[in-house]
Amino acid sequence: MNGNRNDPAAELREYMAACMQCGTCSASCPNAEFMDVSPRRLWRLAQLDRMDDVLASRTFWMCSSCYSCMLRCPRGLPTTRAMQALKRLAAQQGAAGARRGQAFCRAFTENVERYGRVQEGALMNTYLRRRANPALALSYVPLGWKLLRRGKLHLLPGSGHKGRLAPLVNKVREMEARS
Q1: Where are the domains of the chain?
Q2: Cα distance between residue 67 and residue 60, in whole Å
Q3: pLDDT at residue 72 is higher than 90
Q4: What is the value of pTM for the model shown?
Q5: How far apart are CA 65 and CA 27, in angstroms?
């Protein structure tokens, strides 16, 4: 975030100052049902300067950056950028959930970069290994079996696009390093 150095959340509040609480962002979000606080409520908490509550939420970690909220916002607010800014702020401040969120984001990016698409088995293997929590790994077994039975989980990588996204991912990393 580029806001005031003494107030790292200043840019986020600036992004969301014009939010009129219409709820379009929450209604547009394909991941809203998995969030503990709706995006609309998250922006209200930010407006009220309740950053501890904002950073305690897992809402911004669930954002997949699909830009649906940003495209449909009647005020044209940069909601997706705000979600990304929250991820950075949480990581900088060591907020609860930041390590887990970062571990998954890193594992996901590496997986796509390596295989050219998401390879679910390899992704979860990397993520769960990094989390080093056997109980967490076991908690995913029922879902894994269900997905495997329905042919929705592929254990062995098999993409003909292996490595083709590496230049794109490297460019994004370069751009993020400059901002």
Answers
A1: 10-93, 98-173
A2: 13
A3: yes
A4: 0.65
A5: 15
> What digits encode the pLDDT tens for the residues 114-172?
887 778 888 888 888 888 888 888 888 888 888 888 887 777 666 555 667 778 778 87
* Among candidate residues 12, 5, 14, the one with its CA nearest the CA of residue 53: 12
Task: State both tokens at 133.
Answer: 């929590």
The answer to whether 43 touches 25, Cβ cutoff 8 Å, is yes
Look-up: residue for tokens 């969301």? 16
Mapping DSSP to helix (H, G, I), strand (E, B) and coil, where does residue 41 land?
helix
Three-class SS state of 150: coil
Decide yes or no: CATH 1.10.1060.10 for domain 10-93.
Answer: yes
Token pair recorded at residue 55: 């950073």
Measure CA 31 to chain center: 10
